[in-house]
Amino acid sequence: WSSIPWLARPLQRRGEQQEGSAAHGHPGRRRTNSRTSMAQRDEVIRRTVYVSDIDHQVTEENLAALFINCGQVVDCRMCGDPNSVLRFAFIEFTDEEGARTALNLSGTVLGYYPVRVLPSKTAIAPVNPTFLPRSDDEREMCARTIYCTNIDKKVTQADLKLFFESICGEAESATAALNCSGVILGALPIRVSPSKTPVRPRAPRQLMH
Fold this sequence. Notes:
Residues 47-122 form the RRM domain. The protein is α+β, with helices and mostly antiparallel strands. The protein has helices spanning 16-21, 27-46, 60-66, 96-102, 136-143, 157-168, 174-178, and strands at residues 7-8, 48-54, 73-80, 87-93, 109-110, 113-114, 116-119, 146-149, 184-185, 188-189, 191-194. It folds into two domains: 7-12 and 128-194, no CATH class; 40-119, RRM (RNA recognition motif) domain (Alpha-Beta Plaits). The radius of gyration is 19 Å and the shape is globular.
């Protein structure tokens, strides 16, 4: 498995964590927390821009570099578009001014195509910092890793492995795998995007003495 340049993780349903916390009987506290989290989310959305029509050869690093003079970039998340050979991305800045300035770059040619920059309607899902690459080897591994979601429950790990090997080849770069976003596997179109995290081997369980 270590030679396969892709990563599959289960898709978490929206609101799962919030629904679980409601069972402890604190409706007032839940409403307050909900209002606070919604306000925080709205603030993050105002600091985020949506970028479309991105050349498939453009990396997240290339894209972030385009916006470096607009303000400090907090996160950059590129995704495959099942309806186009071009990709789209979300870029989050530290403040709203950075996001507003970034809108002026709409129409800038990056690669072979002019990108479109619009205010985002959604925030970028955060990544647990403990999962981020910690070394050059892990960063190199991360470049060969993809993040695959919307996987049919009937599709097994072996099915997914065979699918990407047959389409992309065992030793191919993750770039080819990104073009599989939107392909029907089982009964659902899979979503493929660059991974922010490397695939780490599972730690062996400690034996009880």
